[in-house]
Design goal:
Layout (H helix, E strand, L loop, with lengths): L1 H23 L1 H5 L19 E5 L3 E4 L10 E11 L4 H12 L1 H13 L3 H5 L3 H17 L4 E12 L1
Helix pairs in contact: 4-6
Length: 157
């Protein structure tokens, strides 16, 4: 009877030890935790991997800045769609091409939140591109939208 009790205690300690070991070393055993996970490196796609959606020019107001003046922007945007995902990319391209209103609404929204001074700053156009890219991705719930380019960017006041 005493031997069975000792064996049960040893078995219980072994199981507790195993759980403790797994808990302490879970990152090494199962990869990094979600809190510490690093995003995959950005892919560098070639032009042949992208399909552009060339949008019509839009003219809209910019946000009134500290100078109190009204400015307008005429902007033409081209959106690059990542086509390396084959069927998923093709389906998304068809969807995005049929929902140009979503792009136009996002463009106007970003412009209306940007002052002329911000848009004309050294990194103004790049900041607007990144903001539009994030807005497009949010609205379409897709990272297949790879980049944003401006083919026309004129501010007047």
């Amino acid at each position: 009877m005493m031997i069975i009790l000792i064996l049960l205690i040893v078995l219980l300690l072994a199981i507790v030890g195993l759980f403790a070991f797994v808990f302490i070393n879970k990152d090494k055993l199962f990869g990094t935790s979600s809190a510490e996970a690093t995003p995959p490196p950005a892919l560098s796609l070639s032009a042949s991997d992208l399909s552009p959606i060339d949008l019509d020019s839009r003219t809209t107001n910019l946000k009134i800045g500290d100078d109190g003046k009204s400015y307008i922007i005429q902007i033409t945007v081209s959106v690059g769609i990542d086509m390396t995902q084959k069927k998923t990319s093709t389906d998304f391209y068809a969807l995005a091409s049929s929902r140009l209103d979503v792009f136009y609404d996002a463009i106007i929204s970003v412009c209306n939140k940007t002052t002329a001074a911000e848009a004309q700053s050294d990194n103004g156009a790049e900041t607007m591109k990144e903001t539009m890219l994030n807005e497009f991705r949010d609205r379409f719930k897709s990272n297949l939208i790879y980049n944003v380019n401006f083919t026309n960017f004129i501010i007047s006041g």
